[in-house]
Amino acid sequence: MSGPIKHIVMWRLRGETPAERSAARSKVKTLFEGLKGRIEGLTHIEVGADISDVDYACDVVLVSEFTNSAALKAYATHPEHLRVREELGDLRIGRFQVDYPIKETGA
Predict the structure, then answer these.
(1) What CATH number corresponds to the domain at position 58?
(2) Grouped pLDDT means (10 residues each) for the chain, 107 residues
(3) Residue 107: inside a domain
(4) At what angle do helices 18-33 and 79-88 cross, to 10 degrees?
């Protein structure tokens, strides 16, 4: 695939109390949003923390876009991304991912 790619990841996070889960959500959001402008080919990054508090919801969603599949692949091993993963440690207890090509709109 040579066109833009959307990369969506959702996590369940560790935390026994609502306060611990809230702190975990904030940490994930802050660390991933800190990648903005630091990784070539990463054109959009957005992190949302769940507010529904339903028992089947994920805690955090990452929505990002890359110029192409090569940029997404490079992101996986980029030192800044690896640093974020290291800082989060075992905070994430469940992970779900979807990657798909973005249809380009034209006139």
Answers:
(1) 3.30.70.100
(2) 91 93 95 97 97 92 98 98 96 96 75
(3) no
(4) 170
